[in-house]
Amino acid sequence: MGTGAWLALADRRDKYHGVATAVYLQLLQQHPRLVTTNLVIAESYALIRYRLGHEPGMRFLRSLRQSQRLVRLYADEAAELDAEQLLEKYADQDFSLVDAVSFVVMRQHELTQVFAFDHHFRVMGFTLVVAS
């Protein structure tokens, strides 16, 4: 799961909130485990904290910590170095470091689909999950 998905789920005023809620409910029904990275969680917390305040940010962190269905993948130094190389290679794109690390980690774990609203994943060949 990408940052945009977490943010849309947390913020009822987000333009993707309705779609995010529908997709998330589908994913929970169809998949026993959902995957994200520690960097996506950190970025999501920062944006939720900035947009909605301290308590919603903490509620987000607590809910993920308590989830039995969420798998956190941790980026190591090698993944960061690979991500920096992607940023160099794709200088024409405005990928964030979190995006690039996500691409690397997803490839390492052979993940091809992502619940995100960020077109960068599509640019890198991943499939965006949408409501059906």
Keywords:
two-stranded parallel sheet; 4 strands; two-stranded parallel ribbon; 132 residues; mainly alpha; Rossmann fold; 7 helices; 61% helix
Description:
The chain has 132 residues and is mostly helical. The protein has a single domain, classed as Rossmann fold, CATH 3.40.50.1010. The protein is 61% helix and 9% strand. It is built from seven helices and four strands; from the N terminus they run ααβααβααβαβ. The strands form two sheets. The protein has a two-stranded parallel ribbon. Strands 3-4 form a two-stranded parallel ribbon. Strand 3 (113-114), helix 7 and strand 4 form a beta-alpha-beta unit.
Question: What topology does this entry show?
Answer:
Layout: H1 3-10, H2 17-30, E1 34-37, H3 38-52, H4 54-66, E2 70-73, H5 77-89, H6 97-108, E3 113-114, H7 119-123, E4 127-128
Parallel strand pairs: 1-2, 3-4
Helix pairs in contact: 1-2, 1-3, 3-4, 5-6
For the terminal residues, how far apart are their CA atoms?
Answer: 17 Å
Give the strand content. 5-15%
CATH architecture: 3-Layer(aba) Sandwich
The biggest beta sheet reads: 2 strands, parallel
Count the beta strands: 4
The structure class reads mainly alpha
Could you say how many structural domains there are in total?
Answer: 1
Radius of gyration (CA) equals 14 Å
Tally of contiguous helical segments = 7
Summary, kept brief:
This protein is mostly helical and 132 residues long. Helix content is 61%, strand content 9%. Helix 1 packs across helix 2, helix 1 packs parallel to helix 3 and helix 3 packs antiparallel against helix 4.
